[in-house]
Specification:
This protein is mainly alpha-helical. Helices cover 86% and strands 0% of the residues.
Length: 160
């Protein structure tokens, strides 16, 4: 095996480990991508300089395949990170919607029962803790924020 092939293989393995093995390291890939690209271009220059016109494609073929592997690995890494961010956003939105819906449902019931403001707030808070515990666990809103949201929804339900 030629040293160029071994170097290119090592670069591909390093890129695969960094970008797929540790998706969090993908944020650093922008900085390292230029270094990897420079190293790949340097490995491409050696066979090109040593070859004649007829041997050019033969000399470049292994390096181009390695370059394609690095590019594909990089794209897979970035796609993985983007997919993880997208699904995280979708899950958070569902929890937020469930929390707001539960608060509004309980607020309407409290208004219909004509509960006192403090009793209504406690009723809504209790209802929310029992009906959407996963959303509360995932979003982890501070108690004062949740209380303000409950009071706001109670006022909104009272106007309806």
């Amino acid at each position: 095996m030629s040293p160029i092939f071994i170097l290119a293989l090592a670069l591909c393995a390093s890129a695969f480990i960094l970008l797929v093995g540790w998706p969090l390291a993908a944020a650093l890939a922008w900085g390292t991508a230029s270094v990897i690209s420079a190293a790949i271009l340097a490995t491409l220059a050696v066979p090109v300089a040593a070859s004649t016109g007829s041997d050019l494609l033969t000399a470049l073929a292994p390096s181009l395949l390695d370059l394609a592997g690095v590019v594909l690995t990089t794209l897979i890494g970035f796609a993985t990170v983007r997919f993880q961010r997208w699904t995280g956003i979708q899950i958070e939105a569902r929890h937020r919607e469930a929390l707001h819906s539960a608060i509004m449902t309980a607020a309407r019931v409290a208004v219909a029962r004509k509960l006192a403001p403090d009793a209504a707030t406690e009723f809504v808070s209790s209802y929310v803790r029992n009906s959407v515990p996963d959303a509360l666990k995932q979003l982890a809103p501070p108690a004062d924020t949740l209380d303000a949201l409950v009071r706001s929804r109670l006022a909104q339900a009272a106007e309806l």
